Amino acid sequence: MTEAILLVGGKGTRLRPLTVHTPKPMVPAAGVPFLTHQLARARAAGVEHIVLATSYLAEVFEPYFGDGSALGLHLEYVTEVEPLGTGGAIRNVAHRLYSAPDEPVLIFNGDILTGLDIEALVDTHRTTGADVSLHLTRVADPRAFGLVPTDGTGRVQAFLEKPQTPEEIVTDQINAGAYVFNRSVIDEIPTGRPVSVERETFPGLLAAGAHLQGMVDSTYWLDLGTPQAFVRGSADLVMGRAPSPAVPGRCGDRLVLDGAEVAPDAKLTGGTVIGADARVAPGARVDGSAVLDGAVIEAGAVVRDSLVGAGARIGARTVLDGAVIGDRAEIGPDNELRAGARIWCGARIPQGAIRFSSDQ
Q1: Helices within 77-159 (DSSP H only)
Q2: Helix (H) or strand (E) holding 134
Q3: Of 80, 145, 152, 289, which sits 20 to 30 A from 92 (CA to CA)?
Q4: pTM higher than 0.85 for the full model?
């Protein structure tokens, strides 16, 4: 049995206002908290014991998931009082691991949606005798990522920060945010201070001659750090483009949860999810969007590629395109919000007040 650490302590600043009251891994994607998809995929790969490294709004996780038995898992929770970085968070939960020094421990970032073959990553780690193995993926434009070049056998050669010039782009392989560590490597991470695995642990191991192995897996991969990416990820889960055994329904153009009311002539397309007890009125159109629990889309409203928070209300004939509406916000009729507009939790927008806006 392989055990795992899930890093779920980030504040999700780029996702605000969605993360004002909810930690990023608990924001619903395809009808359930995003973390549910990660836990379910880990369990499907044979993982039974997972330690959640929590920090921001740490009190939210355990009441929802409990001991993990509903998912066939044994879950434990460790909260860091002060931010410790990725490496520090990993070291902070080491006392809850069962693995012997030479046994593998899976580590996942809590904001990555991926179709990674988890079992293949563990097998690669074991067969190559690596100290650490990394999931790598290829991207068309790697400038926003750290590059990880490898040799012909997949052994990592370097860790390169975000390239600034074409000459610095020596590979299209990037760190995809899933790892296998030998337990002994985790125990060597310094305690009591922030540590970054990307900037300190991995380069330090490489310099010391450790074996770091990369496994390129170019299946579905998406960093859900921005609202636009989160909405896309939710839609891809609903449509089956991103694999998950935790989607609460059949894959298709739409997912309507229990208690939701959708008018017969309302149109739901593009992987739209309508949360529990939400309501979509006659003539409304919702495309590629997530409408969370208890929200209301009034008659004739158009919602595209947007996220509507829990209990929010979108007025009649209002148009949302690439917008994020916070929990319990009310957008009056005849408004138009586009181009990344964000409306804070509980805000009130009168009728016709905004015809075009961004960065609200």
Answers
A1: 85-92, 118-128
A2: strand 132-138
A3: 145
A4: yes
